[in-house]
Amino acid sequence: MTWNRIPWAWLLTSALTFTACTSSPSGSTPDASTPDASTGDEWDGHYVPLEENGDTWPDTGPFASCTFTANAGDPCPDGFSLFDLSACNRESLANANTDGLFMLTTRTDWSTPYFAANVIRLGSDGGTQYINNQPITQQASAGNARLYAAESTASNGRVRRELLATCEAPQAPDFTGCSASCNNGKVFMLSTFKSQRTAWRAGEAEASGLELVSENLVDLGRPVDIYVTQNHAYVVSISAPYLGKAAGGLTVFDVSNKSAPVKVKTLQLENDNYWNGVWARGDALYVASADRGVLVFDIRNPADPQLVRNLPGDNTDVHTVFVDGNRLYAADLEKGILLFDISNPLQPLELNRYAPDGAIPHDMFAIGDRLYASFSDSGFFVADVSNPSDLRTLGQFTYPRQFAHHNAVGTFAGRTIAFEGGEGPGAHLRVLDITDPTHIVKIGEFQLRPEYSIHNLVLVGKKLYIAWYQEGVRVLDVSNPTRPTQVAHYNTYRESEADIGDYFAGAFGIRVPGDGFIYAVDAWRGLLILREQ
User: Fold this and answer.
1) For residue 95, how many C-alpha atoms fall within 13 Å in the half-sphere facing its CB?
2) Which one, of 162, 299, 277, 293, lies nearest residue 229 by Cα?
3) Pairing state of beta strands 463-467 and 473-477?
4) Which of 453, 448, 473, 452 is nearest to 463 (CA)?
5) From CA 105, how far away is CA 12, in angstroms rounded?
6) pLDDT tens, the chain, 533 aa long
7) Whose CA is closest to 404, among 338, 340, 337, 489?
8) Going by fewer Cβ within 10 Å, which terminus of the chain is more open, N or C?
9) What value, to the nearest 5°, has the Cα angle with vertex 528 and ends 523 and 529?
10) Which residues contact 305 (CB under 8 A, 6 or more apart)?
């Protein structure tokens, strides 16, 4: 997750720049109502290629019958005067939700309809309400219809104003309406929306196949990633001032006793508080810093990491890190993927940089001579890195409205298979046959609710472990990669007053180090240690 660091992020205050996807083709995904069904068959390497339609939402027209009294570029009217609710069934809003946290799927009626998301926290107890993390500063009612508005000022002085008006509740308590975003007093974006209460999937228990062993609060910022080695868990956090959270940093837990981990150290650096990724090799811990590149810590005493150096230097925005053998990869949001030789783990030597056509990397996976790179809105890339001085792109997989976020790769029935996770509304899990990188074929996919997306993936044998934001931790049986099947889950997400409303919430980081436990990081609950039943 890097919403305040990458180019599409500026739209978050009004809408996320992702469209949602259509339902999976028949046979490629278990029915959402029965996600725990078992496939019961081992893959023989045969498949039927699946059509790729991208992250698109089935378009049935506007979500609400309200309209607008102004157009993009016009002066931004105040309050209800921007909205025409005359066609709305406002009486139905008597049964609409007015308390809780809601994801609002939005549809902007451009030449090609554009689907995105807003988040709103409502409450009738007199407490602060929010739109996209910003306090609601204006609210009004007209009969049963409600108006909400919030305003924020960016670092460049731009004033953003968000306005929402409810229209009707055709399937109460969910509601529909119209929303507008104005920049510096001018209308920028006009959309209709529908709501979904942010909560566990309907009818789903807290857990199935997984049990919680321990829960451990992380005080620093918003925890997002974890690495486990030498009986210690290293949790990194990003700064989250908009949530009232402290600056980010590193929290170290002694996890010798999984039922009662001990917090042994917290570490922060001045003017360097956005630490989003972490990995280790031997006595070295590598942390991705948005301000100083790769931070290298000496963990010969695992409870007391000591900063040795940062690479390649200050003012370097590294978002994620990955280690394979003697190679360290770092996703630099400005320079591409940095390759380091870590034959001496505490003294990495930069070898080269991989940035095809200036693409912006988000995360990567590597095995031997192959690098599998998720290049955000440029797609998924396969590269030959056998000769660090001559990095070569072997293949690429793209799709409409993409945001290639994270991936994991393994061998199944003699074929090389990539599990590719996108991020944003409608993004989901794609299964790709990449045996021939020049001819990448989609052979399977898996999706839960399209409003919520995957963050990180870990492939262990024939199981795929997923940190899936508000959907929590999901475990898929991928022995037949054409039919990923959910076999266990744990709902880490808890709707609470602490969560003022953020698309990026719930389960972020996940590790399965082979000690019989699953380590997950939840944005609010911190470090969770789980065990499969």
Assistant:
1) 8
2) 299
3) antiparallel
4) 473
5) 13
6) 543 444 333 233 333 333 333 333 323 333 333 344 444 468 999 999 999 988 877 788 999 999 999 999 999 998 999 999 999 999 999 999 889 999 999 999 988 888 888 899 998 888 889 998 899 999 999 989 999 999 999 889 999 999 999 999 998 899 999 999 999 999 999 999 999 999 999 999 999 999 999 999 999 999 999 999 999 999 999 998 766 667 999 999 999 999 999 999 999 999 999 999 999 999 999 999 999 999 999 999 999 999 999 999 888 999 999 999 999 999 999 999 999 999 999 999 999 999 999 999 999 999 999 999 999 999 999 999 999 999 999 999 998 888 999 999 999 999 999 999 999 888 899 999 999 999 999 999 999 998 899 999 999 999 999 999 999 999 999 999 999 999 999 999 988 766 777 888 899 999 999 999 999 999 999 999 999 99
7) 337
8) C
9) 160
10) 234, 250, 252, 265, 267, 285, 297, 298, 299
Residue with tokens 């104005």: 182
Which residues make Cβ contacts (< 8 Å) with residue 504, sequence separation at least 6?
1, 3, 469, 523
Instruction: Please classify residue 311 by burial: count the beta carbons closer than 10 Å to its beta carbon, then call 0-12 exposed, 13-18 middle and 19+ buried.
Output: buried
428, 444 in Cβ contact below 8 A?
A: no
Query: Is the distance from CB of 338 to CB of 353 less than 8 angstroms?
Result: yes
| Residues contacting 156, CB < 8 A, separation 6+ | none
The first and second tokens of residue 337, run together, are 């993927």
Q: For the chain, give percent helix, strand, coil, nearest 5.
A: 5, 45, 50
Is residue 441 classed exposed, middle or buried when 0-12, 13-18 and 19+ CB atoms within 10 A define those classes? middle
Residue position matching structure tokens 């509601």: 175
Question: Which tokens sit at 458?
Answer: 């870990």
Rounded CA-CA distance 327/338 in Å is: 10
Short-list 515, 513, 456, 519, CA closest to 490: 519
Q: How many angstroms separate the first and last alpha carbons of the chain?
A: 30
Q: Are 382 and 395 in contact (CB under 8 A)?
A: yes
What does the DSSP assignment read for 107-162? EE-SSS-EEEEEEEEE-SSS---EETTEEEEEEEEETTEEEEEEEEE-TTS-EEEE
List, as one string, the DSSP characters of 465-531.
EEE-BTT-EEEEE-SSTTS-EEEEEE------TT----SS-SEEEEE--SSS-EEEEETTTEEEEEE
220 phi and psi angles, rounded to 5 deg:
-80, 120
- Rounded to whole angstroms, how far apart are CA atoms 362 and 277? 11
Give CA angle at 82 (76, 85), nearest 5°.
170
Token pair recorded at residue 236: 């990194």
Q: Which two tokens stand for residue 199?
A: 């909560």
